[in-house]
Design goal:
Layout lengths: L8 H11 L6 E3 L4 E3 L2 H15 L1 E12 L3 E12 L5 E9 L9 H21 L36 H14 L3 H15 L10 H12 L3
Antiparallel strand pairs: 1-2, 3-4, 4-5
Helix pairs in contact: 1-2, 4-6, 5-6
Length: 217
């Protein structure tokens, strides 16, 4: 009988990635969605590690980047217990200067968990891009209503030529003074070339006649 063929570290990792099922068992009450935590991933991966004879270790270091920023660098290491081969993946998370309701040690601990989770995501090919995690409180204030655009006043319906003619005739009837009548006829004739309001041929001319007549009232 041939000897048992042992998997190398890459084959063991591929086997774990293929079988790993880490459900999103945590609930973000503000965002109203489910997500998975570091603990969920570890709970799901432990039986698979035993089946391929590998171990998983997690470690942190604090790194000072820039002028005043401290980052937690988390490293997830998969080690083959049969060949002592290793694969490592790292992830970073930045410490907040303060976080409401937490002591300094708690802030570092929460950032460590966050960084470790994303190191595990990278090692086991877990896609959490749609999650914002439990630390995301979203905006807890009352959501603002979207600003509605100002409503425009309805535009008046354009008057027809016949309606304008009726207005011209109506204005003419209100001018009872003989002198005003003469001026009215003169205004109509000057603008339209006709003394008869019924002979007005277009809207533009009729509007000019009406404007001139209204000034005589």
């Amino acid at each position: 009988m041939g000897g048992i063929i042992k998997m190398n570290i890459n084959e063991k990792l591929m086997n774990i990635q293929e079988q790993l099922k880490a459900p999103k068992s945590q609930r973000n009450t503000f965002g109203k969605y489910n997500y998975r935590s570091q603990e969920d991933i570890l709970e799901a991966v432990k039986p698979l590690l035993a089946s391929v004879k590998a171990i998983l270790t997690l470690s942190d270091t604090i790194e000072h980047i820039g002028d005043s920023r401290f980052y937690v660098k988390a490293t997830a290491t998969l080690t083959d217990t049969e060949k002592d081969e290793k694969i490592e993946v790292t992830a970073y998370a930045r410490e907040d200067e303060t976080q409401k309701g937490m002591a300094s040690a708690q802030v570092t601990g929460s950032v460590s968990s966050y960084a470790r989770k994303y190191a595990l995501n990278g090692l086991f090919c877990i896609d959490d891009t749609k999650d914002s995690d439990a630390t995301n409180g979203h905006d807890k204030s009352t959501p603002k209503k979207p600003i509605e655009p100002a409503k425009q006043a309805p535009q008046p319906k354009a008057k027809t030529l016949e309606e304008l003619k009726e207005e011209v005739i109506g204005v003419c009837k209100t001018l009872t003074d003989d002198d005003k009548k003469e001026v009215t006829l003169a205004a109509i004739k000057e603008i339209s070339g006709s003394q008869n309001p019924l002979n007005l041929k277009d809207i533009k001319t009729t509007k000019k006649v009406l404007e001139a007549l209204n000034k005589l009232k």
